[in-house]
Amino acid sequence: MPELKPKIPGLMRNLVSLAGLILVALSLANLLFLFMLDLLGGGSNPYLGVLTYMVLPVFLIGGVLLVIIGMVRERSRRRKLAPGEIPKHVRIDFNDPRQRAIFAGSGSFVIIFVLMSAIGSYRAYEFTDSVQFCGQLCHTVMHPEFTAYQLSPHARVACVDCHVGAGASWYVRSKMSGLRQVYNAALKTYPRPIPSPVENLRPAQQTCEQCHWPEKFYGAQLKTIDHFGSDEQNTPRQIKLLIKTGGGSPALGMTSGIHWHMNISNEVWYLPTDRQRQTIPYVKVRDRQGHVTEYFAKDSSLKPEEMQKATLRRMDCVDCHNRPTHIYNSPDKAVDEQLAAGRIDRSLPFIKKFAVDALTASYKSRPEALAGIARELDADYSSKYASVYSQKQPAIKQAVSAVQHIYSNNIFPEMKVDWRTHPNNIGHFYSLGCFRCHDGQHVSKEGKTVSRDCQSCHEILGQENGATLMPQVQAVAFQHPGGEMDFSATNCNDCHSGGVGP
């Protein structure tokens, strides 16, 4: 009988490789479980996503590396113990059934590992672009921004659509910037509040104008503003404005309104002297013919050498719409909105004043604020309006809840954020806004002044003070030019063919 060779134990029979195998098995099992959990749960938990697509894959790859390192070390050890018996290079012989089995098993593992890595990498990329990752992962830091985002007009627009946009270069740039933010969040060295505006934000033409394109819309907008007095009757005051939004395309010959600024038929450049771009001593306008007009604030102390070194900013969407998503309403405005919507009973005497006073008091934390609001409003009515307090308990409780809701969505003492932190440049009611330039104090060498005329941007159609709000705009019947038409039997397109005769 031929002499049987002793079976040589596999290279993975060493402590390092065995530890790697255990790490691979545990990571793989947990990865598959959490992947199914995330898939069935709809990806609502950001920490689950971090664990599934960022933490466990690192352990899995680490385990595979340990297996390989252990095998290499074991082979090197055996070569030293028995020189000449183990060849320098690995011999692959598919005639050997054992080698065929090892190759088939290893190949299958590599294919599965590569497929899982591809799927996991895509899911990791998708997860890091998600709203949950941006808004909920760093809960304390981003809580004010995420709360305001959920209540904003862009609540269904992903954060990265505005902050990053399409393309690999801006994606890589944003993630590199994110590493610094992760470091600051881990060490709690992040600023309170988060400073604004965001430096080096991608140009609005590459983000905002992918949906909002000023050249493709124009005209005016009707806006109704409801105010309530701080008197006992909470007297309403309503203003109806026609806002001259404007827009249009120079190719079609129609450019007008507020969107005149938006590089449609003009280029506007300006020099801010503060971080939040609220102080603007210099403005430059270039029209389509190339004519340049420079405006200097009358109180400006800018010197020629300072102007030469200064970096001008070209005006775009976010210079006016600087808070399109993360909006923090003032107590005055927020209480007005709740009164107009009927969530706060207007018949409660002085409720506007009491609510604003409760919101503007100093609190160190959100729990303290919510308790203080309930205590203050309860005390206001129990001590000053005993009959109202006894008769309108449900209305008072509802008012307390509404005011607490306002506080929770607009004031964040832990991050030092409220309506004063980030000035909103739309309009000019609670911050300078339009009046940063349109103050009547910016004058050119030719004597031209940046207008302060209210009619340039809007026209008041009606305003009224009183116990009741103004009715809606009254509709009138359509009058057909050239005579009456029986619209019960005739459709418009029966005659209007767009220029082609019947």
Give the helix/strand layout.
Layout: H1 15-41, H2 46-81, H3 97-128, H4 131-136, H5 139-150, H6 159-163, H7 168-187, E1 221-228, E2 236-243, E3 266-271, E4 282-287, E5 292-297, H8 304-309, E6 313-314, H9 317-320, H10 331-341, H11 351-360, H12 366-384, H13 386-391, H14 393-410, E7 442-444, E8 458-465
Antiparallel strand pairs: 1-2, 2-8, 3-4, 3-6, 4-5, 5-7
Helix pairs in contact: 1-2, 2-3, 10-11, 10-14, 11-12, 11-14, 12-14
Strand composition percent: 5-15%
Give the overall form: extended
Number of strands: 8
User: Major β-sheet, in short?
Assistant: 5 strands, antiparallel
Strand adjacency order, main sheet:
6-3-4-5-7
Number of helices: 14
Which structural category do the helix and sheet elements fall into?
alpha+beta
What is Rg?
A: 34 Å
First-last Cα distance: 107 Å
Residue runs with pLDDT of under 50 for 5 or more positions: none
Order of helices and strands: HHHHHHHEEEEEHEHHHHHHEE
Roughly what percent helix? 40-55%
Descriptive report:
This protein has 502 residues and is an alpha+beta fold. The protein is 42% helix and 9% strand. The chain has a five-stranded antiparallel beta sheet, with no helix packed on it. A three-stranded antiparallel beta sheet has the order 1-2-8.
List keywords for this structure.
single chain; 502 residues; alpha+beta; five-stranded antiparallel sheet; three-stranded antiparallel sheet; 14 helices
Outline of the structure:
The chain has 14 helices and 8 strands. The chain has 502 residues and is an alpha+beta fold. It has helices at 15-41, 46-81, 97-128, 131-136, 139-150, 159-163, 168-187, 304-309, 317-320, 331-341, 351-360, 366-384, 386-391, 393-410, and strands spanning 221-228, 236-243, 266-271, 282-287, 292-297, 313-314, 442-444, 458-465.
